[in-house]
Amino acid sequence: MTTQPNILVIMTDQQKATASHLYGNRFCETPNMQRLADEGVCYQHAITPHPLCMPARVSFWTAQYPHQHGGRRNETPMPPGATHAWQRWKEAGYTTGLIGKNHCFVEQDDLDAFDIWCEIGHGGLPADGATKGMPWFRPIAGINAAHELRRTLTPQNPRFAYGTSAFPLEDYSTGLVAGQTVRFLEQHREQPFALWVSFPDPHEPWVCPQQYADLFPKEKITLPPWRAGEFDGPEVPERNRILYEMLGVRADKLDDVYGLLAVYYGMVRFLDDGLGQILDALERLNLRDNTIVVFCSDHGDFMGEHAMQCKGGVFYDCLTRVPLILSCPGRIPQGVVDESMVNLIDVVPTLLTLQQQPVPRSMQGTPLPTITDSPPRDAAFSEYGAGGPPFTQRDLERLPKPWGRRTLLQSLRWREAEGRRKMVRTHQWKYVHDPMGDRDELYDLVNDPWELTNVINEPMHATVLAELRLRLADWAIATEDGRPVPLPEVAHSQ
Predict the structure, then answer these.
(1) Domains, in order of start, for the chain
(2) Which of 42, 190, 439, 486 has CA atoms 20 to 30 A from the CA of 16?
(3) DSSP state, 329?
(4) Tell me: the pLDDT tens digits for 90-103?
């Protein structure tokens, strides 16, 4: 076994923090996430830098916010020439690999930083199905068969579709990625490795094995609270109202809402079992104490909160708050719950620090508290948009009814690009600013943890609002330069 610590980043897609009992869920137990947390540090307030897949992933690996690296949309991947973790690990002699979803790297120089490349996405294998460094351990025909339903789902209503099936567990993306990871560990146990295990689930299409959906019958699921008229008042931003008109489920059959939640949480439980397979392999191969394990998600999902499903360009906790656990017995404290406000861009600087590698100056993330000597912090930030024009109610009215999933996709690229909204969150407050003029948001997270009422206009909050506006402005200025200029040498007195 090598003495150089290995890196294993396990990332899920669209898994909100509260999909696990570790973050307050009362009906979805995740025993392997618990196992990892018992052997490491569980961050209770981890925030994504951007609640959209590609910007979040580019931010994760560059340790920069989207306004620094420029990847603000799902059509703007890792920029050419960007500094990211995989270059550093490749240069340090690590065997590097991706198993699962990419949605980040496209430049050949970046792809060359990976020795192993086994990609699978939400709809199954890429068109060519090619891998690099190791073949899939399951027959391609079986993998394709297990993913056919994801491409042919019949919607229950205009807003969403879900389904279950009964194929071998190893042929679904979750079982396939977990099994492939075990085989990678078996083959590369003797040399230092850095591996990105990137599960496509529980992102839509919402399909899982029947046996996992069966774990969540209707009577077991607790729906989040819904407030009547939540999107009707003058305090509601137009953007939030438009999203609700596309994603809202109040008019849908309640049994279908429960069925959707059963599949989503079934996907989470399947993922948790996949995590367990990987942890078992690390222990069996005597790699556990020499491998830094990260578990996180890129962003969240409404999945019932605010009477919606899926995601969009807003900043509720169900979309911006994600699970984050780091573990390496002997190198990282065990069984600690950290309450600091942290961000996913802090993970790579933390890993480099633990490896005693220099953190590039371009990386704006800060090593995580508890794991390193960095002090706790009381605020975290997120953003959305690329400076495009607003998508208004008038624009929505031009699209055919009934509004729903089709409308979401028709307007997707416009809404991903519109504006440049920014969020600051503390333990008690969340403030969202829209420089394009849509209504700002302020939520009292202590008295209104589900963020059901925007209190931006209440005079009693004027002082805290002023403080948060200043905090957000200071952050924007402090992080505006993603390509720091060379500094002069420091003159030392004789």
Answers:
(1) 6-373 (3.40.720.10)
(2) 439
(3) B
(4) 999 999 999 999 99
**206-253: per-residue pLDDT in tens?**
999 999 999 999 999 999 999 999 999 889 999 999 999 999 999 999
Q: What is the DSSP letter of 412?
A: H
Tokens at 31, concatenated: 């025993």
Structure tokens at 354: 């633990």
Give the mean pLDDT of the chain. Answer: 96
AA letter at 223? L
**How high is the pLDDT of residue 1?**
39
Structure tokens at 437: 């003029």
For 59-127, give the secondary structure using H, E and C. HHHHCCCHHHHCCCCCCCCCCCCCCCHHHHHHHCCCEEEEEECCCCCCCHHHHCCCCEEEECECCECCC
pLDDT above 50 for 494: no
pTM: 0.97
For residue 268, what are its two tokens? 């989470």
Among the listed residues 309, 341, 303, the one whose alpha carbon sits nearest the alpha carbon of residue 47: 341
CA angle 361, 364, 368 (to 5 degrees): 110
What single DSSP character describes residue 399? S
Q: For residues 132 and 493, give the distance between their C-alpha atoms in angstroms, rounded to a whole number.
A: 54
Identify the three-state secondary structure at position 132. strand
Rounded CA-CA distance 276/33 in Å is 8
How would you label 64-91 residue by residue, b for 16+ Cβ within 10 Å and e otherwise? bbbbbbebbbbebbbbeebbbbbbbbbe
| One-letter amino acid of 158 | P
Pairing of strands 40-47, 336-343: parallel
Which tokens sit at 444? 């009292």
C-alpha–C-alpha distance, residues 337 and 369, integer Å: 11
Q: What is the pLDDT of residues 200-214, one digit of tens each?
A: 999 999 999 999 999
